[in-house]
Amino acid sequence: MAENKKPLLGFVGKLPCGTTPGNSGKTHCPLCMGLFKAPRLLPCLHTVCTTCLEQLEPFSVVDLRGGDSDTSSEGSIFQELKPRTLQPQIGILCPVCDAQVDLPMGGVKALTIDHLAMNDVMLESLRGEGQGLVCDLCSDREVEKRCQTCKANLCHFCCQAHRRQKKTTYHTMVDLKDLKGYSQVGKPILCPAHPAEELRLFCELCDRPVCRDCVVGEHREHPCDFTSNVIHKHGDSVRELLKGTQPRVQALEAALAQIKGTHSALQERVEAVAAEVRTFSEGYIKAIKEHRDKLLKQLEDIRVQKENSLQLQKAQLEQLLADMRTGVEFTERLLTSGSDLEILVTKGVVVERLAKLNKVEYSAHPGVNEKITFSPKEKAGLCHGYEVFGAINTKEVDPAKCVLRGEDIHRAREKQTASFTLLCKDAAGESMGRGGDNIQVAVVPKDKKDSPVKTMIHDNKDGTYYVSYTPKEPGVYTVLVCVKEQHVQGSPFTVTVRKRHRPHPGVFHCCTFCSSGGQKSARCACGGTMPGGYLGCGHGHKGHPGRPHWSCCGKFTEKSECTWAGGQSAPRGLLRTVAL
């Protein structure tokens, strides 16, 4: 097991001229506003000082979500469906996004350390942008040099002592000012179980970094390798997850832009309707003024209702977008600035967070529309004895009130067009009087549910819709009619499709003698005959039914389906007359 020293994702070296890694958001705690001290990475990928987290008031919750604890932005419309199990938890709220953070058994100190933040704090301190660094050994004096071998910051006194010791005589010492151009000067990450050993290996079975003592102890039989050898595989998996998250950020931004556009259209429409109401009200004096005020109040209530709905959806999408951005920015910075070990240490939290964010469902379309109209000619009743006109309409179709009409709504013929009419009504049961509603119709064979029949929907622009379809085969079909993705009255219903209507190949006549012009060879399905060698029927002769009938099948109804089985050795009663 040889260690590959070539880094994959992070590197320690000089930054290009003018490049400044990090800013106050990456080095300062959002709670105390000071430089990070023992920063901890929360599941929502926000970083806070350990002491600041310990000062937050914990609370006890019963987790019904089946194990996952982070609910930073999963609101009412983003809730994920999970098996409900009772799991008592002690948690805190993230001071940045108010996400619920369920603390592990070890409390705040058991959360993941943000080594990227620690490195940024040290770099900022080296540049003189933060407080002076103190010696790692004595913790009293300011740092003057850094041991590149031990990766320790030393004051002048401890530096001299470091050089006098036999084991550290030949360690490389660098002046602190010479490190200001470096991108990483962080401390080695030590094993929590063996503080004297550095984490250099990775256990594939346990999916976490380990040290040499761990490999010969607890992880003896586990597959382990140097971090530099396994970073390729784990780094690529994080990259793939990030690649799937980035498009969702763009989609959320587009959804928010659409929300803003709808809000603007709603404002414009409200103002336009308000102007119409005011213009119409000027023709009246006392009674009309009161009626106008009532209309404006109603319009304001509609605006408030619709705006509240838009604002709620906007807030939920903004929170989800903020969470997505936090995850993407942190992961990008981790992959570009983090060392191999830092990526592996943080990988679990990042993967869990990005996977959770990718599962969140959201609606990219506004929950309400700007459809508000004013009808000045509509009667509004009496106001102080005066008949007033004018009403504000926000009519919306109610699927439960919509009805289906048609004579043959439950019957159809194969390869023949069948149709019915859908009448849309509002919640009060009144006809919509206009078109433009979202109508969905599906005609599905009962035994071939994967082969629906093509349907045509014609909007009559008066609240009714003409629906037609042509079944290809006989059988039982299920018809589903939905308005706004909800079934209307009587939907779904079944339609029995019979075989295609068979026209009569013969003639509808009084007798064979008359219809054939006296031909003796002409026959009729009624079975009648005449003397003198006539094979067909005649008035008053044997077998004649005494009324008009079809020569092909003998039926008495002119507009009927023929039952003659042509092309077979039919009996005399099924023979047809040749029409002249």
TrEMBL record:
Example of a GO cellular component annotation carried by this entry: cytosol
Read off the PROSITE patterns from this record: FILAMIN_REPEAT, ZF_BBOX, ZF_RING_1, ZF_RING_2
State the UniProt keywords alphabetically.
Coiled coil, Cytoplasm, Metal-binding, Nucleus, Repeat, Transferase, Ubl conjugation pathway, Zinc, Zinc-finger
Q: Which domain of life is it from?
A: Eukaryota
Annotated GO molecular function terms are: ubiquitin protein ligase activity; zinc ion binding
- Tell me which EC number(s) this protein carries: 2.3.2.27
First-level EC class: transferase
Q: What is this protein called?
A: E3 ubiquitin-protein ligase TRIM45
